[in-house]
Design a protein that fits this description.
homodimer; about 425 residues; alpha/beta; Rossmann fold; Dihydrodipicolinate Reductase, domain 2; Alpha-Beta Plaits; 3 domains; eleven-stranded mixed beta sheet; 14 helices; 19 strands; about 35% helix; about 25% strand
Amino acid sequence: MKEIKVGLIGFGTVGSGLAEVLLTQQKRLEKRSGLSIRLTKVADIAISELPPRFADVTLTRDAKDLFSDPDIDIIVELIGGIEPAKTFMLQAIESGKHVVTANKALISQEGWDIFSAAAKKGVEVGFEASVGGGIPVIKALKEGLVANKILSIMGIMNGTANYILTRMTDEGAAFVEVLKDAQEKGYAEADPTYDIEGIDTAHKLAILISMSYGMRISLEDISIEGISRLEPIDIQFAREFGYKIKLLAISRNHDDHIEARVHPTMVPENHLLASINGAYNAIHFTGDMVENVLLYGQGAGMMPTGSAVAADIVDIARNIQSGSINRVPDLSYLPDQIIDRQITPMEELFCPYYFRITAMDKPGVLSTVSGILSKYGISIESVIQKGRKESGPVPIVIRTHRAQESAVEKALAEIDALEVVASETVKIRILEDQE
Amino acid sequence: MKEIKVGLIGFGTVGSGLAEVLLTQQKRLEKRSGLSIRLTKVADIAISELPPRFADVTLTRDAKDLFSDPDIDIIVELIGGIEPAKTFMLQAIESGKHVVTANKALISQEGWDIFSAAAKKGVEVGFEASVGGGIPVIKALKEGLVANKILSIMGIMNGTANYILTRMTDEGAAFVEVLKDAQEKGYAEADPTYDIEGIDTAHKLAILISMSYGMRISLEDISIEGISRLEPIDIQFAREFGYKIKLLAISRNHDDHIEARVHPTMVPENHLLASINGAYNAIHFTGDMVENVLLYGQGAGMMPTGSAVAADIVDIARNIQSGSINRVPDLSYLPDQIIDRQITPMEELFCPYYFRITAMDKPGVLSTVSGILSKYGISIESVIQKGRKESGPVPIVIRTHRAQESAVEKALAEIDALEVVASETVKIRILEDQE
């Protein structure tokens, strides 16, 4: 049986998960592929030895030992971050190795250099695990939905953020409390910025946009807003309107321009994305032929991510075996078919909005507020006024029809400048019902 | 650019959908695959001409014209049913053509003959569209989840049945009423037996079982119960217990034996499968590495199904182009690795149960009933007694802990023989919470 030898850079959580997957599934992979796929070398600077069950795997501190090993066919990068991950990937490619990574920051920001280098050397780049953890979303998009123009992408793509939102929703708890508990339990990192501020989600959205529409995208073009300023009261009002709040990545394909944004979104309760709870991820595509497709699963974790990395390895191994390297283009479209497209600035986009205005409970406030909204062409769908107190401010909650972001910004600036308005108005975008 | 020529047998709903997909997506497929994939010939006995936009496609009444055409690379069978579909598939294979089908009855019942013939001739068999319509479930299972032992399969795989159940749930309407309306609206066929009695779902489950576990399965080994006897009152009681009723395909992998069954199932409301509404399908896999994965989309329809058939065509076209035919085994495992396994008889399986006993409202009935259940080792989780009337029978609704089917059958036979019991007890299986 032909052997395919794998080198691994980074024996952390995901790296050790991959090693475990390859060991546990070795026989199964033989029965499915007719290939013996073996991890032979690991490069890691933080450990001094591998667990005993990896006795036949060589440990080195120097990734160069992998590049220079003529027996290694595929090198897997699982250290994360931009450098030295990028340099390692490029060196591996330069050495003629196929490469696999789970590194969404790297692929979304430096992918072009990596894909170009790989194309020049005629090697493959696998990155299934960079989006949606164990969910086979990259393969589904490149192959399963190949005969579709992708019209939209919507996703819950960060498990930490969704875990926090789910607990805030279920328990009515405040963001900081849930975050603290999540950190103590290991569900959130010590520095959770990437997860809670939507940056990780934007990395993943950028990758899906490139592949869905066959275009280059720069991370700066994606409008990003996180969940750290959400308050339980907004989750409560969302429920009264029939919505759940989710951190969504949203992109729509308008042919001549593309929407690309990440923000807390009120999702209609009967939409499947509203039912995605805890640390799970879900990615929803609309294709012009297939209509709606949703893929759901563990968006992170050592074994689920290991499963996705292993799938890439098997895919490449099969191509090595059958002499069909680059059978499917890395980014779904052939390199010379990838074009530039305009990303619509956030200010130009339309959607329905939720506003929570905090105002003194005086007669005429609603009339003033609705007058300002009307002046900017923003029409009100419904209003909730609650918590009437003897003194002190009360929330005025408004759900609007579709309005343009720029008009909303101007109207809210004017509303927040009113003397009766006690604090900055909270604005949350609403997913349209037909989506 | 290399041309790949496709012949199509059957220009009905799905066939014309495929023709439309290939025409609409031709440029896109070129940009993604570097191949010109063209439908060149259609065989159909029911039409006299093709729509004008297929002017360069030849229409014939005789499928043999496709087999004997040396230019055709791939033949697609979309007539459905066992014969003449099977003969056409075998003749196409014998002529050295790759074949693609959406025919779940054929693949689940006669697949072995087709896969054997294809292996002998060294051609491929594509059947993505046979399960889950447009959802790329076959590819996900064969490739995306390749590094997993599949532990369980659960699915809502018949859109008609799920549409009827959703409307019964939302409207409290009776099965016959909803079916009649669904037939008038074209959502259900004139003869809906396959859809509502679970047979179509069983066909799809058989295909997924073969591929998930690498085994042969006969349709007779699958225990099948449909939805035609469900009553609105049971849907109502399910809701009170926190469940929705879905027609589920369920299989579990116990290594030495396999569960395989299709029946109405009470699904906990917080399970994602409980949120799959209308004509949508969803397939849920649990893998030992990836944990839970769910794939959702349109389980039928001309364009979604056409999308899946087209994906198979592109896959085969890429293999033709790169000389990598049979790069991935048809059934996920290599033919010589497919083994026989025992299917557990339904009577031996355990699950929690819902019973609705219809009894005269006399003192001591519940005591008698619970005594019988206890005698057979069936323990009660909760009871609802409602609708107390002056005279006439009332429902006694019981939810049990896990019990064995054979014990349940004996207990219910004894209960139904009681003089106070007015009609046959309704029994619905409950999906366990941890699943």
